[in-house]
Amino acid sequence: MTHLKSFTAAIALIAASAVSATACEVTLRSSDTHPDGYPTVEAVKVMGAELAKATGDKLCVEVFHSAQLGQEKDTIEQTQFGVIDLNRVSLGPFNNIIEETKIPSLPYIFRSVEHMHNVMDGPIGAEILAAFEAHDLVGLAFYDGGSRSFYNKERPITKMADLEGLKFRVMQSDLFVDMVSAVGANATPMPYGEVYSSIQTGVIDGAENNWPSFESSGHYEVAGYYTLDQHLIVPEVLVMSKSSYDKLSADDQMAVRAAAKASVPVMRDLWAEREKVSEAKVRAAGVEIITDIDKTPFIEAMVPVYEKYVTTDKLKDLVTRIQATE
Ligand code: BDP
């Protein structure tokens, strides 16, 4: 979809839904690229239920799942403009606009999901959420995105050299283009919704993602080799349009923030459960899973990526503090 078309489609869809609106005074429209039932979609519904309860049904949330409002890069712009009120997105597509989001998007910055939780639940996470304000957005909460690994349709990747010459789709962030080049492969940034057909038709050889996305997108049907190199543990984020947020009373703004935070533990449980279900489904489909891989060369290959992106004192300080977090 062209930019203008997707913008118009989002407005039309939102207008149509307003007709069938509930008794709520304000219905916040929320975007998600994932299908109904996916942990992020369900978490935002939980957030909405909490918000309705806290405000006596004054504020509600309607989740437009399955990229009904467009692909992430476009929906982010629409959220900045106030056409979309809430948006659940990966941090990746923010990298080119909000520099602080690059840091938790760096390959191998987190030692484990637990380390990522410890960082993002603390002052560093709060600082990164606050950075959205300067870009017409309000950062509300971080969600889980597991760890992302490479999959492709050509061959099993058992060592870094096997990646040479393969073409992988990455999220629309320069950082991820360089990350893929650093391991000797080629990167093509493209919207998530175009990946399946691009692998099928051979425009790309593969992509990289976590278990639930690899499964729910159906990419495992067209890319039969999944190598658990776990190069990214990039958090996902729930943001609100600053213009929608500014229309609310101070009490309602607090209720929005509290409801978002309340959805985080629920999301983490749903995520842990879905990771297992997705892994089982992918294994049952006969995908070859390569678990025995030495990550050290991958980690070492990322040094130039850090040098290129961790440029200012502020960003260097964030990296140091993340590494020092238990
Ligand atoms: C998924 C994220 C989603 C991204 C997608 C992608 O949940 O927000 O759009 O990856 O690769 O894991 O674009």
From TrEMBL:
Where is it located? Periplasm
Q: Which UniProt keywords apply?
A: Periplasm, Signal
Is Signal one of the keywords UniProt gives this record? yes
May I ask which residue range the UniProt record assigns to the signal sequence? 1-23
Q: Name one Pfam family in it.
A: DctP
> What's a single GO BP term from this record?
transmembrane transport
* A molecular function (GO) term: carbohydrate binding
Decide whether keyword Signal is in the record: yes
Span-the-membrane segments of this chain are none
This entry carries the following GO cellular component terms, namely: outer membrane-bounded periplasmic space
* Protein name in the entry: 2,3-diketo-L-gulonate-binding periplasmic protein YiaO
Look up and give the organism this protein is from.
Pacificibacter marinus
